[in-house]
UniProtKB/TrEMBL annotation:
This is Citrate synthase. It catalyses: oxaloacetate + acetyl-CoA + H2O = citrate + CoA + H(+). Keywords: Acyltransferase, Transferase, Tricarboxylic acid cycle. Pathway: Carbohydrate metabolism; tricarboxylic acid cycle; isocitrate from oxaloacetate: step 1/2. GO terms for molecular function: citrate synthase activity. It comes from the Bacteria. PROSITE patterns: CITRATE_SYNTHASE (PS00480). One of its GO terms (cellular component) is cytoplasm. PANTHER family: CITRATE SYNTHASE. GO terms for biological process: tricarboxylic acid cycle.
Length: 429
């Protein structure tokens, strides 16, 4: 990283600040000394112009629609690699050699079971609980079960916690699903690949054999790759902020899951499918487009728009292709939701409002239809996002903990409340 100086002038106040350049992407003005030098803070509540950290993991060029993990384009990873290879890349910085991959897969596979006591934990939840509520609780509870990997100062424990989390998340998610639908838990099978095992734990029942369909397993694996990491998004920033205080990684990931749940973030795939269902038929699309444009209507086209992408989300292109592959494999010829989705996309991409605001379909637009075809109920969609994103959260958390300059995250504020005033006893108010 190169460093130069830049002069900032605000009214009468001037200060020299460092201008820092990364390997690619815009330069950043390092404002860490701004307050000391000028007595001023910066104000950027949605972090629209703020780089919250330095990172070597993921790069996004939102204008060009580019997403790179450790320099590799997402389409190459999704089309030619597999999810555990992507996990290794995110965690260690390089693609594994054949031997490293074998060892990594072995280590992840040997951690897929969860403590038996944890399965009883589930019965404390209502059956109709949203699976994301169960995820927040049960992932947070991992720190109560794996004390031997919560010392964040120990690199070995950090790595054990990371592998445990990547390995156990599908098991925890599948159990949340099984509990939700009232079926018995299905234990992981170590002879199956990561995505295969997940489908098995979700869809196998004790009374008949479950046959893995390789096309569907590949689609599942691809969905995991597409959601593995996405730079400093809301949930990742939540994990980093929680971790900056020294909290253990299980607790930090539980915080990330809570943040992911919201409809503006991971909850959008569920919301997008609900919206497509509500639209129902292509002839109703203009009505919904008009609502999306109406300033007085809070309605938004779910699965459209992104804080960073002002171009087609590169993940959405692969997701669309995967969606077609899954529907073809399952012989779903005329899925009405897909028809509505494709027509909605066509209309939105040619509409002046969406063009001007650079609102393109994001990854969540087609993932809902694909997950529904795979057999998942909508309530599980964000859970699957959480399973995939766990590696991103954990890689970013590890990077932060291993940064020698790491300090607790402590933003400041612009105070607009009452100025100093004296307490008035209740009988005098
Ligand atoms: N439909 C209609 N108008 C929209 C939409 C949309 N989906 N998204 C943004 N706009 C408009 C918005 O009304 C605003 O208009 P104006 O300038 O006239 O006030 C303008 O576009 C900019 O929107 P913003 O809310 O300032 O942008 P943001 O960067 O704060 O929000 C977003 C990004 C993703 C939250 C937003 O686009 C949105 O709510 N999209 C729908 C939810 C969604 O699909 N989320 C998934 C994101 S991708 C997966 C993930 O990262 O979790």
């Amino acid at each position: 990283m190169t460093e130069q100086s830049s002069r900032i002038i605000v009214g009468e106040t001037e200060a020299d600040l460092e201008l820092r350049s990364g390997t690619i992407g815009p330069d950043v003005v390092d404002v860490t000394s701004l307050y000391k030098k000028t007595g001023l803070f910066t104000y950027d509540p949605g972090f629209s112009s703020t780089a919250s950290c330095e990172s070597k993991i993921t790069y996004i060029d939102g204008d060009e629609g580019v997403l790179l993990h450790r320099g590799y384009p997402i389409d190459q990873l999704a089309e030619r690699g597999d999810f555990l290879e992507t996990c290794y890349l995110l965690l260690y910085g390089e693609l594994p050699t054949a031997r490293e991959k074998e060892d990594f897969v072995y280590r992840v596979t040997r951690h897929t079971m969860i403590h038996e006591q944890m399965s009883r934990f589930y019965t404390g939840f209502r059956r109709d609980a949203h699976p994301m509520a169960v995820m927040v609780g049960s992932v947070g509870a991992l720190s109560a079960f794996y004390h031997d990997s919560t010392d964040i100062a120990d690199p070995h424990q950090r790595m054990v916690a990371s592998l445990r989390m990547i390995a156990k998340m599908p098991t925890i998610a599948a159990m949340a699903y099984k509990y939700h639908i009232g079926q018995p838990f299905v234990y992981p099978r170590n002879d199956l690949a990561y995505a295969e095992n997940f489908l098995h734990m979700c869809f196998a029942v004790p009374c008949e054999p479950y046959r893995i369909n390789p096309v569907l397993a590949r689609a599942m694996d691809r969905i995991f790759i597409l959601h593995a990491d996405h730079e400093q998004n809301a949930s990742t920033s939540t994990v980093r902020l929680a971790g900056s205080s020294g909290a253990n990684p299980f607790a930090c990931v539980a915080a990330g899951i809570a943040c992911l749940w919201g409809p503006a973030h991971g909850g959008a795939n569920e919301a997008a499918l609900n919206m497509l269902t509500e639209i129902g038929t292509a002839d109703r699309i203009p009505e919904f487009i008009a609502r999306a444009k109406d300033k007085n209507d809070p309605f938004r086209l779910m699965g459209f728009g992104h804080r960073v992408y002002k171009n087609y989300d590169p993940r959405a292109k692969i997701m669309q292709q995967t969606c077609h592959e899954v529907l073809d494999e399952l012989g779903i010829k005329d899925d009405p939701l897909l028809e509505v989705a494709m027509e909605l996309e066509r209309i939105a991409l040619t509409d002046e409002y969406f063009i001007e605001k650079k609102l393109y379909p994001n990854v969540d637009f087609y993932s809902g239809i694909t997950l529904k075809a795979l057999g998942f109920p909508t309530a599980m969609f964000t859970v699957l996002f959480a399973v995939a994103r766990t590696v991103g959260w954990i890689a970013q958390w590890k990077e932060m903990i291993e940064d020698p300059n790491q300090r607790i995250g402590r933003p400041r504020q612009l105070y607009t409340g009452a100025p100093l005033r004296d307490y008035v006893p209740v009988d005098g108010r």
